[in-house]
Design brief:
Blueprint lengths: L1 H13 L5 E2 L8 E11 L7 H4 L5 H7 L10 H18 L16 E5 L3 H14 L33 H4 L1 H15 L7 H11 L9 H14 L12 H13 L5 H23 L8 E6 L1 H10 L14 E9 L5 E8 L8 E2 L11 E2 H8 L6 H8 L6
Parallel strand pairs: 2-4, 3-4
Antiparallel strand pairs: 1-7, 2-5, 5-6, 6-7, 6-8
Helix pairs in contact: 4-5, 9-10, 11-12
Protein name: acid phosphatase
Keywords: Disulfide bond, Glycoprotein, Hydrolase, Signal
EC number: 3.1.3.2
Length: 388
């Protein structure tokens, strides 16, 4: 019972984004004409770095015999299904009617990072988003309830969604950020650092990102049905604070934000400009199955008002483009789902556009233009060799 109470506490500790709950009703004068949706994968098993911090390595390894490390768990698959249900309810015929109930390749594009957990997440999500209509049912058994929906993935070494591992420039900026932060916001955790080194054998002062790594380990353990260590329970509130600060280092400077989220932002803005100019735009719904750093980076460069807690497993952030039926004006709406299946979606506000949830597109473009980063420019900045 304790582990379930703990999980609720952990989620509530991190879920403090401000916004108004929303339903799926269509605003009468606003027609949704384009949406970019970025989600974090479902619950996963620990990765090797997290496992190195555990004093219960064998027990955790035994629990991950089937899935392996950093892999989607059964709970994560259920979470992914809830992501798909949200997509269908919000963007399908029963919601904003952006896409059909039929899977039509011109209506939607789907991209995943080249990680099993993100690829499995989007596969399960699409099973919920596109249960086959009669004309797409392909046999009398499984073909009546499931159809394959394609997605695309680039090698990790070339994918702008993996900027925090493949971008040399970003890694250098992160090194400087960690060195600066350890003498500033992490100074208050000196006593905690000593205690954690005793328990884990690793020096958190040398790498403050370990705070988030350890907290992720505990979240993975809870998801696997394993209680966290007794020694860590009194430390959990301070550890969660330090983990959030560690997560915030990925967005410490505008340059880091631009590298992390600028390319996603550029995709949205370019599509919106084409729509504004009356040019044809396919794939009016674009999905990205990715990681917490992608959800956070797009929120940062979009200038969403939020305290930027660590996005939960199954969190979803969307930039939606609307056209006024009466005036023809375009506006942008930020929508955040803290955790699919556990919470309701919220309308957010943009910084500098707080008078309404809907922000005039030209104003949004002006507010965010310094963060725009075309994909080819990302490769140049990050010194990545690619076929583009």
């Amino acid at each position: 019972m304790f582990r379930y109470i703990l999980l609720v506490l952990v989620i509530s500790y991190f879920d403090s984004s401000k916004g108004n709950p929303i339903a799926n009703e269509v605003i009468s004068d606003q027609e949704l004409v384009f949406a970019m949706v970025v989600n974090r994968h479902g619950e996963r098993t620990p990765d090797s770095e997290e496992l190195s911090l555990s004093n219960e390595k064998e027990k955790l390894k035994n629990l991950t015999d089937v899935e392996g490390l950093e892999a989607l768990t059964n709970l994560g698959k259920r979470r992914a299904y809830q992501i798909g249900k949200f997509i269908r309810q919000r963007y399908g015929s029963q919601g904003q009617n952006l896409v059909s109930n039929l899977y039509l390749p011109d209506e939607i594009s789907i991209r995943s990072t080249d990680k099993d957990r993100t690829k499995m997440t989007i596969q399960v999500a699409m099973a919920a988003a596109y249960p086959p209509e009669t004309e797409q049912q392909w046999d009398e058994g499984v073909g009546k309830v499931w159809q394959p929906v394609p997605y695309h993935a680039l090698p990790l070494s070339e994918d702008f969604l993996r900027y925090y591992t493949n971008c040399e420039k970003f890694r250098n900026l992160m090194t400087a950020a960690k060195e600066e932060a350890v003498h500033q916001e992490f100074e208050q955790y000196k006593d905690l650092t000593h205690m954690l080194k005793t328990r884990t054998g690793q020096n958190f002062t040398e790498n403050v990102l370990l705070y988030e790594t350890l907290f992720d380990l505990f979240r993975s353990q809870v998801g696997l049905g394993l209680d966290i260590p007794e020694w860590s329970k009194p430390l959990l509130p301070r550890l969660s604070e330090a983990a959030r600060l560690a997560y915030r280092l990925y967005f410490r400077t505008d340059e880091m934000k631009k590298i992390g989220g600028g390319t996603l932002l550029n995709i949205f803005v370019e599509a919106a400009k084409d729509i504004s100019a009356g040019r044809p735009v396919s794939h009016r719904l674009r999905l990205f199955s990715s990681h917490d750093f992608n959800v956070g980076a797009l929120m940062e460069v979009s200038k969403v008002k939020s305290n930027q807690s660590i996005p939960e497993y199954g969190s979803v952030f969307a930039l939606e483009l609307y056209k006024s039926r009466s005036k023809g004006d375009l506006s942008v709406l930020p929508v955040y789902l803290p955790q699919a299946g556990e919470s309701t979606a919220k309308l957010m506000y943009f910084e500098g556009c707080e008078a309404d949830h809907y922000c005039d597109f030209s104003r949004f473009e002006e507010m965010t233009k310094k963060f725009l980063l075309p994909e080819e420019e990302f490769y140049k900045i990050c010194n990545i060799k690619t076929g583009m």
